[in-house]
Amino acid sequence: MGIGYPTPIIFTIFYANLLISSYFFDFWFYGKLCLSIFNKEIFENVNKHHQTISNIMVKNMKYLAIDVGGTAIKYLLTDESAKTIEIKEIKSQTKSQYGLFDSLDKIISPNLNQIDGIALSFPGSIDVKKGIVHIAENFGWIEDLPLKSILEERYSKRVWIENDGKCCALAESWGGNLSDVKNGAVMGLGTGIAGGIIINGELYRGINGCAGEFSSMIDNLENPKNSRKLSEIAGYKSLLSRYTKSEGANFMLNDAHEFFENYHNGDEMAICVLKDYAKAVSGAIITIQAILDLEKFCIGGGISSQDALIDEISQEVHDYFINNQLRSIKEPIIEGCFFRNAAGCVGALYNFLSMERIVGDD
Fold first, then answer.
1. Would you call 288 helix, strand, or coil by DSSP?
2. Which residue spans of the chain are classified as CATH 3.30.420.40?
3. Do residues 116 and 78 touch, judged by C-beta distance below 8 A?
4. 116 — phi, psi (to 5°)?
5. Strand bridging mode 72-78 / 63-68
6. What single DSSP character describes residue 138?
7. Strand partners of residue 189
C-alpha cells in the first residue's frame, strides 16, 4: 500500500503547480511582449541613429565653391547648407589656359584633403551636363574647353560647372532675394555683365543655354556695327574709367574700393560719375523689363556690396518710369543680391547639389 497524501496537501500542491504554471506562462507571455516592444524601440532607435549618422555625414561633407571672374576669383569652403559664408578671393590670371589652371590650383590644392566636391561658377556658354565651356567672351582663348573632365582627372573630385550669371540667379532663388518671386533676374556688375533669369520659379537657360548674356546687349540700334556692348558701358571698369577721365590724364585710381571711399567722403565728381553709371545700368534694366515683364531685379557683382550703388540704380529706374509716364510696362523692384558678391559661389554650390541629385536619380 502506497503512501497516501491527505486531501488538503494534494489540493495545496495542485494549486501551487497551477500558480507556478500560470506564473511561468505570464512571465513568458509578458516577457515576449516586453521583448517585442523593446526590440521595436531598439529598431526605431537604430533607424534614428542611422538617419542621424546619415545626416551628420551629409552635413559634414565639404564643398569648394569657386566663382571665376575676369578680375578676381572668389571662393568659399562650406557644407550643403551654405550657412558658413566666408568669401575669399585671389587675382585672376585668366589670359591663358596655363594662367587659369594655375589660379585654380592655388585655391584647390590647399583644400583638397577636406573637400568632397568642386562647384564652379564660370563665364560664358556652358554645357552643364558635360562641363564644357564652349566660349567665354572675356577669355578669348577658350573654345570648347572640357573644364569638368580636366579638373576631375587632376584632382579626383566630382566637379560641376554653371554659367556665372545663372549661378547668381540660382543662389538668389534658392535662399536670397528672388526666393519670394516667380519671375525675376540677377544682373551681375563685374568685368562683364552677368545675367540670370528666373521664369515661373525655374532657371531659364534658353535653347542654346545663352539666356541672360546681358553683356552682349548693344546701345546703337540704328547702326549695330558701331555699337558698344553693355559690358563696355556698364561693366565696373567703365565706372572707374569715367572717374579717371573726369579727373584728368595723370589721375590714378587703384580699384573700386578707392572710388567708393571718395564717394562717401563727398567727392562731387565721384557722386556725378556714380549717377551717370547708374543711368547706364538702369537703361539696360528697363529694356529687359520691356521684354520679360519681371517682378524684381537683383544687382550682384563685386561692387554690389555698396548700398549707394543699389540706391542710385533703383532711383534712376523709378525716375525713368515717372518722367516718361510708362504705362505699358510695370516698374520692377530693384534690390541688391542677398548673397552680395558671394552669390556666384552659393549658386555654384546649389548647381552642384542639383546635378548630383539628377545624376543619382538617373
1. helix
2. 63-168+352-361, 180-337
3. no
4. -110, -10
5. antiparallel
6. T
7. 193
Dihedral sign computed on CA atoms, order 232, 238, 241, 247: positive
CA geometry: angle at 61 spanning 57 and 360, to 5°?
85
Of the candidates 90, 63, 59, which has an alpha carbon nearest to the alpha carbon of residue 345?
A: 63
- Domain 180-337: CATH superfamily is ATPase, nucleotide binding domain (3.30.420.40)
- CA distance linking residue 241 with residue 218, whole number of Å: 19
CATH topology of domain 63-168+352-361: Nucleotidyltransferase; domain 5 (3.30.420)
Q: What is the pTM of this model?
A: 0.79
Parts of the chain with a pLDDT under 70: 1-59, 84, 247-252, 361-362
Backbone angles phi, psi at 73, to 5 degrees: -115, 115
- Residue 362 is predicted with a pLDDT of 61
pLDDT tens string 213-272: 999 999 988 888 889 999 999 988 899 888 888 766 456 677 888 999 999 999 999 999
Q: Read off the C-alpha cell for 195.
A: 545675367
Sheet of 63-68, strands arranged across: 88-91, 72-78, 63-68, 117-122, 158-163
Handedness of CA 96, 217, 280, 291 (dihedral sign): negative
User: Do you know the residue count of the chain?
Assistant: 362
